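Render RRM domain-containing protein in 3D.
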Amino acid sequence: MDVPSHTLYIRNLNEKINAKRLKLLLYTTFSRFGNVLDIVCVKNLKLRGQAWVIFEEIVQATEAKKAMHDRTLFGKAMDIQYAKTKSDVIARLDGTYVPRPKRKLDGAQGPTSIGPSAAQKTKTEKTVSKNNPVSNGHTVKAEEPPHNILFVTELPAECEKTALEILFKQYNGYKEVRVVPSRNVAFIEFDTIPNATLAKLGLSGFKVSETHTLKLDFAKQ
């Protein structure tokens, strides 16, 4: 029996699409159904053509599965199932996470590497008291005050303007992306501060490559 899960296991993806591009395409395809916490595409030859999409809510995953199963993406019909095991990112959020040893990956069971980046930990883990500006011996940098323009730093060289446009235009009020390649930064403009804030909350920590996550702050006034 196909038991509903936060995580969708997708097979029969086009193997000619590289993992970085595929991950971005899957995000733009599935994020309209709800908040996508993580997407895992494995470069391993045995698992090429497969991916895992993790939603914040099971109902979101269910809606996406119903709408996208057998839909064509790059000339191939996607075979979408619920993953058989809970992903680490969900286990961390609901408090049931237990580290597990590495093992061979087995299709719908999902990769053991599924899990949140440091930037995707729970709000409790990220929150620092106003009366305690030092955490674990390190000074915590204060955020810039809210602004309708977001500032993206430490972008990987392969992250193009088009990729950022695809990510951010999913949010209401998106206006434009301005990239500064020489500094590996970009500015994302929205029409209002609330819309910029929603995009910041939704995409902070999103993995744009195997080694990079989006680092977002409000632009300086």
